[in-house]
Amino acid sequence: MSGEWGEGPTQGEDASSGAVSTGGDGAVPPPRTGGRAEARRAAQGKGGDRSGGATDGDKDGGRAAGRAAARRGGKPKKNVKKIVAWSAAGVLVLIAGAGGAIYFKLNANIKSFDADAIATDRPPEAKADADGNRPVNILLIGSDSRGKNNADLGGGEDGGARSDTTILLHVYADHKHAVGISIPRNAKVPIPSCKLPNGKWTKGGGVELFNSAFAMGGSDDGNPACTQNTVEKVTGIRVDHTIVVDFSGFASMTKAVNGVDICLPKAIYEGDINPKLPKKGAMVLPQGKQTVQGQQALDYVRLRHGIGDGSDIGRMKRQQAFLSSFASKVKKEGLSPTTLLPLADAATKSLIVDPGLDSADKLISFGMSLRNIDMHELKFVTAPWRFRTEDKDLDLVHPDVDKLWETLKADQTVDGQNATGQQPDAPATSAPQQPTTPAAPAGDAANASIKVAVYNGTSTNGLAGKATELLKGAKFTATTAGQGPNTKYKTTVVEYGSGQKANADKVAALFPGATVSAGGGRGVNVIVGQDFAAASGLAGATGGAGTPAPGAPGGAPQPLPTTVTNDVRSADDDICANTSYGSGG
Question: Is 467 helix (H, G, I), strand (E, B) or coil?
């Protein structure tokens, strides 16, 4: 099996919308009409006759409401906090009410895979830091299962299931940062021994396509435990939770949030969705920004042809852009009954999870633990890869990909920040400390207009992030840009573009002894050197090659290569940027 999602033509929308029903399946019934409550509403000018026309009471009530609004002088915002509080309380009441009917319904939707299928020879659990914070690794799998309603959504006619999308999401110990690593489905990797549906275990040890792990055994539910075992084997990272979403679940979830914003550099036609069609066909997705849900959303994340070079690399970029947009919308909507309940119902109907997430309370608790992740600090990147010369498949690039796994194990972000959830104790050293931000705020307002990109010119991990914090403390608009041209900068360098000399001098004042020089960029760049590391008490933090860093088990990881840092996407990036790969749009 090739492992592709079906490339069949569009066949209409999914029949299930993911909304909570009002029938006898455990949902909350609508309020009854008539009776004293309706009489009171009519007396207050809030009722209506059954013909749909306005009553005299309606008209009088409307005029009274208008006069009341005018008297208030447009000050209804004072009740916003109460509204939010009642909305949150409403969620809890709806879940707990009616004898826990909705909760029971969500609980009954969830399906988990066999814990006995998870390998016993696994990487160690991540250790909690001194503050008790622990990182979490979640394996997200998009399944193209042909079972249930999935074939109607373009799943094809073949049996079994394949994994088109696999992302290892690392949530850092501070639970404010996260990064999703896309693993190419057609990368050649070692597949370990896996349990089959008949209870037997495969021999394992061979090098095969990555998505063959999920297809192992030919079940319509796939083999998520085999994929989890494979990811742990390839990365050396322990997977804490695994979540599988199929076609119908994905379509219903996009409907539950009333669509997700996307952007395409060119229009997509039926012939792009199904290259076997003899003609171009009708337009499926127009060029530019748009909101999609259901079948259209599925077409977007499955799309390979008609854009870029037609490879899976471009498709992964679009999947990352889609997940970014989806997460941003859910974050923006917040905790409201109208968003939470339909989304929870749609999601749980189509999930297969590990035994650690096999109940509604576990899923809710897990979801709430992620609520503080900032969208700018939610990153996506593809594991470093290269095209193979002997076939059309891919290889993961070593040692680049190894450095990426080590960065996650050390709980360092892809832009060099320390996200362990704690600040290291100040070392007992006579080295001079970095001067604090000047207390006088005289130049703060002007500093905000100065944009500074910070690079690490040493092998001391997290140094660029520390310099960025220093600059932000002085009100500069600073961003951590990653690794510098090399790791041998002894002195910090402040580079400036045309007309930026005065701004560079202001920045350099925060880095005593820094060299200020003209550069090729437009703004101001800071490349921090060993002098800043020493002043910050971090000198020698990485040690020599293979030498563990003091206080860091296993040592700090090597700096990430540009094959990783140049490919990073933030969840708040422009949705029209970085959505294709290669020529062709």
Answer: helix
Q: What share of the chain is helix, strand, coil (3-state, %, to 5)?
A: 35, 15, 50
Both structure tokens of 542:
């990485």
Exposed/middle/buried for 452, CB within 10 Å: 0-12, 13-18, 19+?
A: buried
Burial of 128 (0-12, 13-18, 19+ CB in 10 A): middle
Give the 3-state secondary structure of 4-61.
Answer: CCCCCCCCCCCCCCCCCCCCCCCCCCCCCCCHHHHHHHHHCCCCCCCCCCCCHHHHHH
For residue 228 the two structure tokens come to: 């989890």
pLDDT in the model for residue 561: 87
Q: Which residues of the chain have pLDDT under 50?
A: 1-99, 146-147, 150-157, 423-443, 540-554
Judge whether 273 and 7 are in contact, CB under 8 Å: yes
Q: Looking at this protein, which amino acid is placed at residue 326?
A: F
Q: List Cβ neighbours of 488 (8 Å cut-off, separation of 6 or more).
A: 457, 458
Q: Which residues pair with 482 in a beta bridge?
A: 455
Distance between CA 401 and CA 557 in Å, rounded? 12
* 3-state secondary structure labels for all residues of 186-216: CEEEECCCCECCCCCECCCCCEEECCHHHHC
DSSP code, position 552: S
Amino acid at 404: L
**Model's pTM, two decimal places?**
0.63
Using DSSP, state whether 430 is helix, strand or coil: coil
> What is the rounded CA–CA span in Å between residue 503 and residue 523?
9
C-alpha–C-alpha distance, residues 60 and 72, integer Å = 18
Q: Say whether 302 sits in a helix, a strand or coil.
A: helix
What sign does the dihedral 502-506-507-513 (CA atoms) show? positive
Q: Which residues of 373-403 are buried (b: 16+ CB within 10 A; e: fewer)?
A: beeebbbbbbbbbeeeeeeebbbbbeebbbb
Q: Can you point out the beta strands (E) in 362-503?
A: 378-382, 385-387, 394-396, 451-456, 477-483, 493-496
The pLDDT score that the predictor gives to residue 335 is 55
Q: 526: which strand partners?
A: 454, 494
CB 410 within 8 Å of CB 129: no
Residue 361, H or E segment: helix 360-368
pLDDT reported for residue 100: 53
Contact indicator for 235, 396 with CB cutoff of 8 Å: no
Looking at residue 435, its pLDDT comes to 39
